[in-house]
Amino acid sequence: HHCMRWLGICRRALAEMLSRAAAREIKPGTPLAAMGTVQAWIADSPAEIEAARTLVLKVAWNIQKHGFRAAREEISMIKYFTANVMQRVVDRAVQTHGALGVTDDTILAFFYREERAARIYDGPDEVHKLSVARRLLKQRAARG
Predict the structure, then answer these.
(1) Pairing with 133, which of 22, 50, 72, 73 sits 20 to 30 Å away (CA)?
(2) Which residues are CB-neighbours of 126 under 8 A, at least 6 positions away?
(3) Burial letters 60-85, b for 16+ CB under 10 A, else e
(4) pLDDT tens digit string along 38-48?
């Protein structure tokens, strides 16, 4: 499914970010990785990737155990959540690379350009979010 590929892209973008942050000096002897903002990007990215991965695995388990129909809303959740995580991680990696990040000298420009559509596949984020919200509101109303 798309979500597993997106997680792979996240991992690759994180690896690129780590390499660039360690190698690029902002002044002699001071790597980009010394900047607090870059450290925050480096810390946030794997946390978000792991949250998305865990959600994807939970949904896969639910589909296997209870069937596709029972997991409809969770499937919507993983589509918009994972796509948004990917967009944030790739964006951070591009920022870490500066102008180089938007050139075809890195894989990041390709990810940034080609994977933006992830938030539109199978319907835009907003449609998936509405589906989830309506289902939750319907469940709430049924409880009284």
Answers:
(1) 50
(2) none
(3) beebeeeeeeebebbbbbbbbbbbbb
(4) 999 999 999 99
Does residue 20 carry a pLDDT above 80? yes
Spatial contact of 132 and 77, defined as CB atoms under 8 Å apart: yes
pLDDT tops 80 at residue 96: yes
Average pLDDT across the chain, whole number: 91
Instruction: Using alpha carbons, select from 57, 77, 65 the residue that is nearest to residue 4.
Output: 57
Tokens of 51: 């949250």
**Tokens found for residue 50:** 């792991």
Cα separation, 92 vs 88, whole angstroms: 6
Tokens 């951070």 locate to 92
Q: What is the CA radius of gyration of the chain?
A: 18
CB neighbours of 123 closer than 8 A, spacing ≥ 6? 79
Contact 127, 137 (CB under 8 A): no
Q: Is the model more confident about 73 or about 40?
A: 40
Tens digits of per-residue pLDDT, 110-120?
999 888 777 77
